[in-house]
Amino acid sequence: MEGKGFVSYPPLMARRTFHRSIFFAAGVYNILWGVYSVFDPQWFFRVAGLPLSNHPEIFGCLGMLIGLYGVLYLQIAKSPEAGWWIVEVAFAGKIFGPIAAIWLVAQEVWPGRALLILCVPNDLAWWVPFSLYLHDAWKIRQPASSQQ
Amino acid sequence: MEIALLLLAIQGVIGAFDTIYYHEWRARLPAHIPTAAPELRLHAGRDFLYAVLFGTLPWLAWNGLWVVGLGLVLTAEILLTARDFVVEIRVRAPLGDVYGGERVTHAIMGILYGAMLAFLIPVMTEWWNQPTGLAFAPPSIFEPLRWGLSVMAAGVFVSGVRDLYASFDLPWGGWPWKEKASFPTRP
Fold it and tell me: Closest by alpha carbon to B24, among B11, B34, B39, B12?
């Protein structure tokens, strides 16, 4: 239809409002988590019962990165059709992070509580909604013929 | 520091009045998306900056290079407010304009912010000469003031999330207001 005064818009994804709400929540959560970690970079070590870090600024830097991811999530909440590749990268982090954490707990480097504090709210809680989003985003990227 | 925090608390009270009475009750901004979305996003950004100020200044010292970070937060607030003054001309056009009383409120808040900075800058100069780091160093102030500011930090953060959520046109973002089609007309 293009070229005759019409513009073709990309298709909207299924469960759009649900995905937008989820990424809004993820964005706010990440920014809050990130900002707090910048101001109190020892909180995780204290709560997990680990020795306090000699270099808390590294955890503060992690807070900054996670907070910036929150900004990206808010952008996905605005236009979910355009942000699937960001979510793929984020989802990879949500898989690799817990794998590393489980290994640390298995090696008794970290107590089990650390896994609970860090990985459940930051990673595992988002697996289902992020998977659903990636599924729906993948569907709209398929040629129309294969969507039947 | 006590006077700076007292001025900040007064700013918080007037800001809460401005938000609840003018932004919510009179203009019902969250119900007027997409028209009001740019203004709501500016309000949200500013609310998050105030949450940092209300939440940290009664408890922490921003020592050394952290003063630069605090300076950026304070400057960002000024820039967002300046931008808000421009954006609200367009957003409020269907209402006639920004309400007269709201303009007065904004002017008072601008003056208060300047006065608060005048008392905060000498403290920041002291912090600048300390080794870099955020130190838990609650200034000696009236305890209810400290806790009042902490409650304001939570309140202004929630207000920011509310405005940001509404600006995204997500479900029930305009709650409890019903208007969708246009701004209410002035009597």
Answer: B39
* Alpha carbon distance B28, B23 (integer Å): 6
HEC secondary structure over B82-111: HHHHHHHHHHCHHHCCCCHHHHHHHHHHHH
pLDDT, tens digit (0-9, with 9 covering 90-100), for B72-102: 999 999 999 999 999 999 999 987 889 999 9
- Return d(Cα A57, Cα B97) in angstroms, integer: 47
B6-65 residues touching A, CB cutoff 8 A: 48, 52, 56, 60
Whether B164 contacts chain A with CB within 8 A: yes
> What ipTM does the predicted assembly reach?
0.87
Question: Which residues on B lie below 8 Å from A61 (Cβ)?
Answer: none
Between residues B176 and B185, which one has the greater pLDDT?
B176
Q: How many CB pairs under 8 A join A and B?
A: 23
Which residues neighbour B130 within 8 Å (Cβ) at sequence distance 6 or greater? B61, B63, B64
Confidence (pTM) = 0.89
Q: Are B7 and B116 in contact (CB under 8 A)?
A: yes
